[in-house]
Amino acid sequence: MSHAAVRLVAISEQPLDVAEVLAALDDPASGGLVLFVGRVRDHDHGRGVTGLSYSAHPSALERLQEVCDRIAGEFDVSGVAAVHRIGDLAIGDLAVVVATTAGHRGSSFEASRALIDTLKDEVPIWKHQLFSDGTEEWVGSP
């Protein structure tokens, strides 16, 4: 069963919308909202990146929900949201947006950091990077 604080959990082929995440967490009792946006950058480990694609295992959405539920239960937060993009992305595109709300900023900062770190460690979404030198690399694949 989903934790009541979890407001938005999604994996989407459509461009991510920060405003959608902020709206999902709109709550007059929350004094702090910490938002993290992961974007596609033009380099990785000193190599130029021309683009990438994300692939998700069929269990990825369920695993993302579990991570959000766990964060909501472990931290003093009133709202949790996480959305991840899949498919082909260009430099500058949003790859992931996570946010938490709480009565005070400290809890929200801690929870948002734990949310993005746990998502990256546990949710089976894999990145296929294309480099400017013509090589490629899978990141996070089993």
Describe the SSE topology.
Blueprint: E1 6-12, H1 18-24, E2 32-39, E3 43-44, E4 47-56, H2 60-74, E5 79-85, E6 87-89, E7 94-102, H3 105-122, E8 125-131, E9 136-139
Helix pairs in contact: 2-3
Radius of gyration: 15 Å
Would you count the extended β strands for me? 9
User: Hey, roughly how much beta strand do the residues contain?
Assistant: 35-45%
The total domain count is 1
Mean pLDDT: 94
The CATH topology corresponds to: Aldehyde Oxidoreductase, domain 3
CATH architecture classification: Alpha-Beta Complex
Main sheet record: 5 strands, antiparallel
Identify the CATH homologous superfamily: Molybdopterin biosynthesis MoaE subunit
- SSE arrangement, N to C: EHEEEHEEEHEE
Structure description:
InterPro entries: MoaE_sf (IPR036563), Mopterin_biosynth_MoaE (IPR003448). GO terms for molecular function: molybdopterin synthase activity. It catalyses: 2 [molybdopterin-synthase sulfur-carrier protein]-C-terminal-Gly-aminoethanethioate + cyclic pyranopterin phosphate + H2O = molybdopterin + 2 [molybdopterin-synthase sulfur-carrier protein]-C-terminal Gly-Gly + 2 H(+). Helix 2 packs antiparallel against helix 3. This protein is an alpha+beta fold. It has one domain: Aldehyde Oxidoreductase, domain 3. The chain is 28% helix and 40% strand. It is elongated and about 50 Å long. Strands 3, 4, 6, 8 and 9 form a 5-stranded antiparallel β-sheet that branches. A 4-stranded mixed β-sheet has the order 1-5-7-2, with helices on both faces. The chain is built from 3 helices and 9 strands, in the order E-H-E-E-E-H-E-E-E-H-E-E.
